[in-house]
Amino acid sequence: MADNTSSDNLHKFLESDDPAMIGMGLSMAKGSADSSEETLGRILGLYMFHDDKDIRSLSKSVFMKLASPDVKKVVKKYWQAEYRTQPWIWKTGWMGKMVLDLRSEETTAIFILVKALQINDEETKSSILEIIGNSMYDSFSSQECTDPNSEDYGKISFRKTGLKRNFSIISTTAIVAAMIKLIKSFSTKRVYYSRQKQANISQISAVTTIEILGDLGDTRAVETLIVSLNNTLIVQESTRALRIIGDERAIEPIIQIMEYTINQRKESSYHSGWSRTGPARWRDLNEFAKALGKMGNLESIKTLVKGFDIESSRSALSETEKMSVMEAISKILERAKFDSKERENIIKFLTSEDASLRAMGNSLLKGMLNESNME
User: Fold this and answer.
1) Is 210 in contact with 235 (CB distance < 8 Å)?
2) Which of the 8 DSSP states describes residue 306?
């Protein structure tokens, strides 16, 4: 077995975009007889999905030399060269079965799936992402709410069953890198939606990608998710993922987007559901409040309470939003060592429907912040 340094170098070659570098990596793998799960997975991904025919041919040769008879049997059962560009292998569950069979042979298919994500077909990407989700759970599926009368209209929710599986560090790194690349690609697109269809396959893929990143909890995704807060199509999901990861770098960006959202609701007089021109679910404050409740400090409370100053009845906080904000404030105060009675009184003032009482609450908050800064 190659040592860690040699393996790291080998993997860098195999992950290169330069065919010459990949060729060197394949020669290294063949010479070192490194049949580790991570190396073999990368080689199999190249064999199945690389664009260069010569790379695919060389990868196949190395794979056949290094793989165990049982693993080769699984690949031969499911794979033909012409399948590479055929969407049906993903849409019918064919590749999902191959992934399960490889797992039964204690071989990861993550590197195959990550490599396949380069396919330029949104439906295929969506299917691959669901298989990655199913690699983490016993069952993982997404569903879009299509009821125009529902508050969740256009929202994509996930159903997960079974325990979340822990990937190796190398597998996690590969998934995170691929997911970050997908999100960056989506974030640069301008996508328009009709009222009849609020989310297309591309958006579902983006939301699924963010869900996976959040579940992995890897801090390498934080900066990309922070940038995604500026995309109204995925801001809610990005906020949720950042909350799950729990990195404090996200606090200030979430505060900024929450304040922007509150100002938009003040100016537009639209409620948090749907505007006349398309989806406005991004105006919902629940996820922002939950995130600040988990990560925020006393300064965050100043932003949380601003929603209560929205005067228009159409834009006013929903009961759910009010509850989320109050719970967030309570959690922040609890972390700041305020007892339950103090928390109750402060929240009562800050969230009162009476503007004068809210003003008193803000004065109390200002005093608390001054005391906190002096300590």
Assistant:
1) no
2) G
- Higher local confidence (pLDDT), 155 or 289: 289
* Per-residue model confidence (pLDDT) at position 180: 93
H or E, element range at 156: strand 156-161
Closest by CA position to 349, among listed 368, 336, 335 = 368
Please give the angle made by the CA atoms of 309, 313 and 316, to the nearest 5 degrees.
45
Mean pLDDT calculated for residue range 57-74: 94
Q: Which residues contact 113 (CB under 8 A, 6 or more apart)?
A: 99, 128, 131, 132, 135
Report pLDDT digits (tens) over 315-355: 788 889 999 999 999 999 999 888 888 888 888 888 888 88
Model confidence pTM above 0.85: no
Side chain identity at residue 70, one-letter code: D
* pLDDT over 70, % of the chain: 87
Confidence of residue 269 (pLDDT cuts 50, 70, 90): low
Q: Give the residue from 153, 263, 136, 144 showing the smallest Cα distance to 212.
A: 136
**Is the distance from CB of 112 to CB of 44 less than 8 angstroms?**
yes
Report the candidate in 220, 157, 146 with the shortest Cα–Cα distance to residue 183.
220
Q: Which of 130, 191, 182 is nearest to 156 (CA)?
A: 130
Residue 44 has pLDDT above 50, yes or no: yes
Cβ of 131: how many Cβ atoms within 10 Å? 21
Domain boundaries, the chain: 1-116, 125-245, 248-375
Q: Note the helical H segments in the chain.
A: 4-14, 19-32, 37-49, 53-66, 69-78, 88-91, 94-104, 110-116, 122-136, 169-187, 201-216, 222-228, 235-245, 251-268, 286-295, 298-304, 319-335, 340-350, 355-374
Q: Pick 310 or 190 by higher pLDDT.
A: 310
Q: Which residues contact 271 (CB under 8 A, 6 or more apart)?
A: 265, 283, 314, 315, 316, 318
Provide the residue type at 260 as one letter.
Y
Determine the Cα–Cα distance for residues 372 and 246; give it in Å rounded to an integer: 23
For the cut 80, the answer to whether the pLDDT of residue 188 exceeds it is: no
